[in-house]
Amino acid sequence: MEYRTAGTSTLKLSALGFGTWQFGSAGTDDYWGLEFTDELALALTKQATAAGVTYFDTAEDYAKGGSEKQLGRTIKGLDEATRTSVVIGSKILPNSCGDVRAHCEGTLERLGVECIDLYMVHWPISESSMAHFAGAHTASGGRDYATTGEVAAEAVPPSKQAFLDLMELQKEGKLKHVGVSNFGVAQLEEALSTGVTLAVNQLCYNLIFRAAEMEILPFCRAKGIGVLAYSPLMQGLLTGGWKTADEVPTYRARTRHFNGKRDKSRHGEEGHEALLMETLLKLRAVADESGIKLADLSVSWILAQPGITCVIAGATKPYQVEANVKAAALQLSPDVLEKLTKAGDALKEAMGPNCDLWQGLHADGKFDGRIK
Question: Which helix (H) or strand (E) holds 308?
Answer without folding.
Answer: strand 308-314
